[in-house]
Each structure stands twice: as C-alpha cells, then as structure tokens.
TrEMBL record:
Membrane topology according to the record: Multi-pass membrane protein
InterPro entries (UniProt xref): AA-permease/SLC12A_dom, APC_superfamily
Protein name per the record: APC family permease
Ranges that cross the membrane: 32-56, 62-80, 92-116, 136-158, 170-191, 203-227, 247-267, 287-318, 350-372, 378-405, 417-439, 451-471
Region feature Disordered, mapped onto this chain: 485-507
Amino acid sequence: MPVTTSSPGPVDSVPPASAPVLRSGALGTADIAFFVVSAAAPLTVMAGVAPLAIVLGGIGAPVGYLLAGITLTVFAVGFTTMSRHVRGGGAFYAYITRGLGPAVGVGAALLALIGYNGMEIGVYGLLGSATHDTTHALFGADIPWLPVSLAGLVIIGYGGYRSIDFGAKVLGVLLVAETGILALLAAGVLIKGGAHGLSLDSFAPGNVLVPGTAAVLAFAFAAFTGFESTVIYRREARDPDRTVPRATHLAVGFLGLFYAFIVWTAVQAFGDEEVVEAAGSDPAGLFFSAITTYVGGWAADVMHVLVVTSVLASLLAFHNAINRYGLALAEEGILPKALARVHPRHGSPYRVGVAQTVLGAVVVLVFAAAGADPYQQLLLWVNTPGMLGLLALQLLAALAVPLYFRRVSHREGVLRTVAAPVTAVVLLTTAIVLVLTHLDLFTGASARVNTVLAAVVPTVFLIGLALAGWLRRHRPDVYAGFGAEPGAAVGPEPDTAAPRQPALPHD
C-alpha cells in the first residue's frame, strides 16, 4: 500500500506493499525544528565557544552570529524552494544531483556521510569530557571519559532505534531545558541591569569592524551546523511542502537571534571593559560565573548538568539525520541493500542506526587506544572535517539551485531561484575561506594536522567522483537513477509548474 502524506502534492515514495516504511506525517514544524536546533547544541555552543568569540572579536561578537544567521537565511531561501520540487529522501545530494549531475551528486553523498558522521562521532569525546567536568564540579569525582562515551553510544543508538516521534519528544524536552537556562541567565542580567547598565555598544560599527571579527564569523558559521537537515525529514513530515521550509527558516532565524542575544547579555553581565579580560582568563567558566552572580549558585549547578544533556540532544539529532541519509543511499544502491530496512513497529531505519553506532564505537575505541584526549583530539579532529564537509555541501547546494531551475518549467520568482542562491554562493564561499584561514582556532593543532584535516573533504569528494565513474560504467541503472528514490515523484510543485518531469543532467 503506498505511503501518503497530508500534502496535496504527489506521493514521496511508493515502497513495496510488504515493506515497512518511515512514519509518514509524524513530524510537524516544531518537531523538525527541535531536531535541527538540538543538533546545533545552543547551550554547549554558548558556554563552550562564545567566550572565545568574545576574546577574539571583543564586545562586537554578537554581530558575528547575526551575520552568520543572515547568510544562512539567504541560503535557505533557494534551498527550501528546491525542497518543494525535489522530493526524494537524499536531501543535499539529491538537490546537488538535480542541479550539477549524478557524478557531483555521488561525491556530495559521500561528503554528507563523512560530514554528518564526523559531526556526531566526535561529539562522543565531548560527552565524555563534559560529563567528567560536570561530576568534578558538582561532586569532586573524576569519572573516566571512555565508559561515558560508550554508554552514550548505547543511549543514542536506542533513541535512533525508536520511532521518530519518540526522538522529537525527547529533544523537545531537552531543548526547552537548555535554552531555558540561558534565558534565565539573560533575564537575570536584564532585571539587574548588567554590570554597569545596559548598553548597545556591541552593535556599533566601530566595535564590529575589528580584525577579530573574521574569526568570530568562522565560529559563528560553525554554530549553525546541522540546521539544513530539516529536508532529511521530508518523508516523515506533515504537509512537507510547507512544514520543511517553515522549520528551516524557524530554526535558522531562532539560532541567529538567540545566539546574538545571549552573547550580548554575557557582555552586559561583565561590562564592555571587563568582559574580554574575564573571557580570556577563564573562558570555560564565563557563563557559569555570570549565572552564579545574576541568578544563583544553584543555577550554575543546573547549567553544568544541562551542558551534558545538550550534548546528548545534539548526538541524538545528528544520529537520526545520519540514519535517514544512510537509508536513502542504501535504497539508491550506493550502500548495501541490507541497510535499506525500516523497523516494522517503530518505523525507524534501524539497520543503518546499528551500523552507525558500531562505526562510532570503533572510532571512539581507536582514539582511546591511542591515548587521545577526548576533547582536543576526538572532538576537534573528527568534528572539523565534518564541519567543513557540511559547509561544502551547502555551497554545492546553493550552486545547484539556479542550474536546476534553468532546466525545468516553473513559476518560482527570480529572487528565490537566482538572486538568493547566487548571493548565498558568494557568502558561503567567504564563510569557508574564513574557516580555513582560522582552522587552528578550531583544532588547536599544528599546521600539518590542520592540512590533513582540511584535505579530508576534497579527498572524499574525489573518491565520490571516482565511484560515480565506476557506477556509470558498471552499474548504469544505479547511476542513471541516482538522486531520486525508486518510485519518487520528482518534479515541480503541482500547483505552480508545468507537468513535465525534469531530466537529470548527465556528464
């Protein structure tokens, strides 16, 4: 029986009648937004990274987060417009395939696997180190990181095994908690008037146009990583033509405004003259010191605990995204077909989830066996290629949008199909350059290590191009149909476009 959604458009997929499928119509706008905002881990980003942004950019640091949010909002315009026309489960790589061809699409698919896995697996090191720091701060205990990380793998694996609405409910609770503690800090600062009264000097051009702003922008773009994964949940969304764009704009808009507001309140908590010195002397303790002063010591204890739950929420969000990418690629024939199975009761891509959990365990154990530091090496060295891979995917997707709409009949406006994506290409290229030129700030590693980490992205992409060439010669059916699920209705929005199907561009 074919799967349907509440959308008036064509059915997204038509699996065999006997095959279990993803839960259609399980997610609303808020549910999808919970997934993508949780992946960004707002509390962890603020408490762990924002102090470094203040050290580098001074009191103008809040504007860096606003600028990053504006850039990604521009990207989201073309990205979400295309989401109404390309309806397969492959998200990034499906869009890139439709605009740039199957060869580039296969390269993008491998980048997506590396990017999302890198962003998740590295965070198991952060889970171990954050739990160690929290238990030491609260109880004076020193818990080794490895058992915590392995336990996290089991917990997250179970969360991915359960239904998608189960995950949405868990993330909803955790996200409200972590953003709530930051809102509580902000309220305390506003009520007490900050250290010397409230000031808007952070937004003055003279405090924004400083040499350190480039580094702040690099950190700010990294803080949004994962927001684009809204489209991965298309097959499980209610009325996806509306839900997915709304969730995307809601997520990026919330993150941009929330980050800027919280960093500004941190500046007010210490004062314009004192905050840079305070962040430089104790970056890890900046937010805990502020909430102790303006709310109370008990709130600092709660914040310590919520940092750990914030990391767990980020892990679960990325795990679910990876599972759906893996399912789509298994259905395409790129990954083993044995992984293209959905749980008959939970409607989850459980086999991909098991494989991803095993991969995570292997990486964590290898780093542990090598005596690596869970934060400085497991987190930063594995996350960095993942972040670069996702930025590269955003750039490729932005390039694909105008090329796709040149090939199909449609009634979308030029703002959505040309102006916004071309602007996004320029802005995202700038963002990638900023991140690459400040890579040492992300990794704390030597130039040689940074070169290796940066080289992972083009290497994986080239491997993808080589794989595409092999598929074209030896499995032409897989190559020709790449980028659209079997049975997917891939084409323009039914009420705005001509009836013909867009053809895949071939090399």
